[in-house]
Specification:
- The protein folds into two domains: about 1-45; about 50-190, Immunoglobulin-like.
- The chain contains three helices and eight strands, in the order αβββαβββαββ.
- The chain has helices spanning about 5-45, 105-110, 160-165; strands spanning about 50-60, 65-75, 85-90, 120, 135-140, 145-150, 170-180, 185-190.
- β1 and β2 (about 65-75) form a beta hairpin.
- The longest helix has about 45 residues, at about 5-45.
């Protein structure tokens, strides 16, 4: 074998070794990225905000109101989360409900209706025009906030007594959109028992 052939062979082996080292380094880097992503997801799940939420009828003298209540939201954990910004939203009992009656309500009417026992009050606590949400609230660990709610009005095509009966004792379904500085946001879903008869 000539010296040139030996040089070419050695150069080829060196190049192959470099390529193998590069591939090994690339795979190690990719494994680190994947592991970091998995750990970040696990940490985010472990840090999901926790709440105690009740829905309590408002007292009216010796009795309680049949139409108004107070939704009490308290931020209880986990340790490690500090100031949290929460936007509560009322959810329907049956998401993505469709208009199925010929000549009945339009899809827009069905979508805009709150299908559940309570809604936020427009203008109270920053209640939105559609009564689904309120302005964001800021809570520190252990802090709570009362929010006013009222019985959901039946749609124009429903019987008022039947509507009330349908939603007596059903839970308020909430989505709590949570923001904590430096973290990806969370959405926490809760069903809050009601006590109206």
């Amino acid at each position: 074998m000539t010296p040139e052939t030996w040089s070419a062979l050695i150069a080829g082996l060196a190049l192959a070794g470099t390529g193998g080292a590069w591939r090994t380094a690339y795979l190690a880097k990719q494994a680190t990225v994947d592991l970091t992503r998995i750990e970040a997801r696990r940490w985010h799940a472990d840090m999901t905000p926790q709440f105690e939420i009740t829905c309590v009828p408002l007292p009216m003298g010796d009795q309680v109101s049949e139409d108004r209540a107070e939704l009490r939201i308290r931020f209880v954990g986990p340790p490690g989360l500090t100031k949290l910004t929460v936007t509560p939203t009322i959810r329907d009992d049956w998401p993505d409900r469709k208009s199925i009656l010929e000549g009945g309500p339009t899809q827009e009417e069905v979508t805009s209706q709150i299908w559940g026992p309570y809604r936020f009050i427009h203008g109270v606590d920053g209640g939105s025009e559609d009564s689904r949400t309120v302005t964001p609230i800021t809570l520190l660990p252990g802090d709570g906030r009362p929010l006013s709610v009222e019985r959901t009005s039946p749609p124009r095509w429903a019987d008022s007594a039947g509507w009330r009966q349908r939603y007596n004792g059903t839970p308020v379904r909430l989505a709590l959109h949570c923001v904590h500085e430096g973290d990806e946001p969370w959405t926490v879903y809760k069903e809050v028992p009601t006590v109206h008869q």
